[in-house]
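Friendly challenge for the regulars: who can give me the structure tokens for this chain first? No prize, just bragging rights.
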Amino acid sequence: MINALRSSFSLGDLPRTYMELTKPRIVLLLVFTCVTSMIVATGKWPRFDLLFFTILGGMLSAGGSSAINQYLDRNLDAKMARTARRPIPSGRMAAGKALVFGLALVAWSVVVLGVFVNWLAAGLALTGALYYVIVYTLILKRNTVVNILIGGGAGAMPVLVGWAAATGTVDLQAFILFAIVFYWTPPHSWALALLVNKDYAAAEIPMMPVARGEKVTRLQILLYSLQLLIISLSPGLLLLLPQAPNMLGLFYLVSAAILGLLLIRRAVTLLRMPDKANARALYKYSSLYLALLFLAMILDKLLP
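First reply, four minutes later:
Bragging rights claimed.
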């Protein structure tokens, strides 16, 4: 199969293959949370040059981390139907080239963010990349059922990068945004794990459905969805405290409540009717949930 793929591969496919290494859909979502954090931090659109270089640096960091991840996971990816056609296990990209590409992107992200934004943002982006590559990919993913739970910190780092880019510091409000993404990660990832449980079992990756069973996973999805709702509404507490910073207002809080309740409803449905269709519906909605939640933050800060 690999030889067949190699024989059909042409030079014109090379840019697309490198793009695949970066996992562009994930990069776009991470960059969107980063930009949202910038807007929440200042209450306005960032100036063009700051926005441009923050987005560029964020894309380089996230894309480079994904490429390194695929290099490190190449043997695991080859065992799973979902990932076997990725560039390295399919034979379309040499492993060494993918590693060099990923390292170069991460290095350039530090340069871009450090020179054109600020070094705090650059340091946070590098921390996120190292967290994903070393803490999650090398240590957690292969060895513990809490891999996704602890590893979610890597996906939450872009909001800290955005906040630091916009303000030059990291405040309490930034960590509220961090917590939202952190607690969103388990329901989202475990829903996917339910769909590809056989793949993870074949690769001996101790994801929650493999290590604890699907029933426990569905219950955990519901519990973390409930916690996510509470955390997403926590900016409302700042409105009640005297002299507290005004983070987000009523429009966001109503949106967060509606979106969170819909997520919980899907989690309850999955618990009652444990089939692939409901797991897939929850997985798809969870991606939409995060995008709409952060869009609500933007509208809350920018609408008059």
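Residues 276-302 form the longest helix (27 residues). The CA atoms of residues 121 and 187 lie 28 Å apart. Your move, everyone else.
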